[in-house]
Design a protein that fits this description.
This protein has 231 residues and is of the alpha/beta class. 49% of the residues lie in helices and 16% in strands. It is built from nine helices and eight strands. It has a five-stranded parallel beta sheet with strand order 2-6-1-7-8, with helices on both faces. Strands 3-4-5 form a three-stranded antiparallel beta sheet. α1 crosses α9 and α2 packs antiparallel against α5. The chain binds 2'-deoxycytidine-5'-monophosphate (DC).
Amino acid sequence: MQHFTIAIDGPAGAGKSTIAKAVAARLNFIYVDTGAMYRAMALYFVREGFTSFNDESALQSICAQAQITIRYEEGTQQVILNGENVSSLIRTEEVGKQASIISSYLPVRQKLVELQQQLAREANVIMDGRDIGTCVLPKAQAKIYLTASAKVRACRRFQELKAKGQECSLEEIQKEIEDRDYRDMHREHSPLTQAEDAVLVDTSAMTIAQVIDRIIQIAGEKGLHEDNLWK
Ligand code: DC
C-alpha cells in the first residue's frame, strides 16, 4: 500500500486546475493547486511593498514572515496567509503575473516546495504547477504535461473573463500568456519543462470531459487501481 501521486505541469491557461479538480473528485484524491501558494506569496510581497530582490537576506526574511497554509472546505482548497483566507484575492491577472515574477527566486521556491512535498506524504494527491514532475514529486507515479497552443489558451481565458463581465482584449491576454510562459520556462530555478517520463496531453482540440478521461486512463496505465490505493 502506498500513496499514489499524479503530477500535472504545463503553461498558464492550459486548464490544469479545472482538469485536476475534476480528476480529484472522480478518484477521491486531494487536489493541490501549487500556483495558489505562489499567488499568496506574491500577494504578501505586494502588500509589503517588497522590492529588494537582490538582497538574499531580505528575501529569506520576507519568506519567513509569510506563513502559508492550506486547508480544505467542502473539498475545495483554501489558501491561508498569516491566518487570513486569501483564496478569493489571488485569482486576478495581476497577482498571477506577480506570482510568476517572485517564483523565480530560490528562497520562495524552497519554502513552498517543502509544504507541497509534505502534503503529498499525507494523502493520494493530484498536484498541478510548473515543476511538480521535475522537482517537487520526481517519483510521482503518473506525470502529465498538459498544454494547448497560446492562441487556444488566450481564447479560453478571454471567454472566462467575458463571462465574468470583465473588459479585456484577446491580443493583450495572448501577449500576457506568452510573456508568462517565457518567464516560467526560462528562469534559473526549476523552469517549466516536460519531465522525461511525463505524458504529453495537448488539449487544443479536446473537450474537458475528454481530457479528464485521458488523465484517468494514463493513471490506470501507470498502475492506479482501486485495490492498491492507500485509504
Ligand atoms: O498556475 P498559476 O497561474 O496559478 O501560477 C502562478 C505562477 O506561479 C506561475 O506563472 C509560475 C508560478 N508557479 C511556479 O513557479 N511553480 C509552480 N509549481 C506553480 C506556479
